[in-house]
Write a structure and sequence with these properties.
Elements (H helix, E strand, L loop, with lengths): L1 H13 L3 H10 L13 H8 L1 H19 L12 H20 L12 H11 L1 H18 L2 H19 L5 H17 L1 H9 L9 H10 L1
Helix pairs in contact: 1-4, 1-5, 3-4, 4-5, 4-6, 5-6, 6-7, 7-8, 8-9
Length: 215
């Protein structure tokens, strides 16, 4: 029963509509009416700029971290690693579900990548570091948040299954599932990238201006 209550709490944490709150508070708009229509960090970067996109991304990551940390409220899981990992994954996925289908925003949210990363950061910080390194590297060279998200998600099963060879079956399944879901939820982005019409986030403007002056 305690676990069920924590799962519900994790869902409610994930349901906090960060991008919607920021867009309404500072711009008086509903972020879902602009750009891709998603209530996530990628669309916030695209519509509101890098400052507010960064704020939303950090907040969405923290939702995953805080949701997973709820396991600390049940002492039994503090000394049982396998059971703890299973509960942490359940709490994290519940938060991600809340982000994608937020009860506080008519069940129309984002794609959950930032919250997924926060969940992973709380469970396996070293693997999370590898994924974020891929994300930042791809973002630096392409400025596509969507492509960065896809490739960093694909890095997750590579780390879990081969590099660190984690033996927790549920965690291995989770890694593959996450990669598959991120690719599936970014199909439209993949299509736009292939057509050359995907929006780039407004970062590294000085680098772009220098390149433009050289041409």
């Amino acid at each position: 029963m305690k676990e069920v209550i924590l799962i519900i709490c994790a869902y409610l944490i994930g349901s906090i509509p960060t991008a919607l709150i920021v867009s309404q508070r500072f711009f008086g708009i509903d972020i879902r009416d602009y750009g891709s229509g998603n209530m996530g960090a990628t669309n916030t970067f695209r519509v509101l700029g890098s400052k507010y996109g960064t704020i939303v991304m950090i907040a969405d990551i923290l939702k995953g971290v805080f949701a997973v940390a709820l396991f600390n409220l049940i002492p039994f899981y503090l000394h049982n690693e396998l059971e703890r990992t299973n509960l942490m994954i359940g709490l994290g996925l519940s938060a991600v579900a809340g982000h994608i289908f937020p009860v506080f925003a008519n069940f129309k949210g984002g794609k959950g990548v930032a919250t997924l990363f926060g969940m992973l950061l709380a469970i396996q910080p070293v693997i999370a570091g590898s994924c974020v390194a891929v994300f930042l590297l791809v973002l630096f060279f392409t400025r596509y948040v969507s492509l960065s998200s896809i490739l960093s998600a694909l890095m997750l099963p590579i780390c879990v299954l081969w590099i660190w060879n984690d033996d927790v079956v549920l965690y291995r399944f989770f890694a593959v599932l996450v990669a598959a879901l991120v690719v599936l939820t970014h199909q439209k982005n993949i299509g736009r990238i292939l057509r050359g019409v995907e929006s780039r986030v407004p970062i590294l403007k000085h680098r772009d201006r220098r390149k433009a002056r050289r041409k």
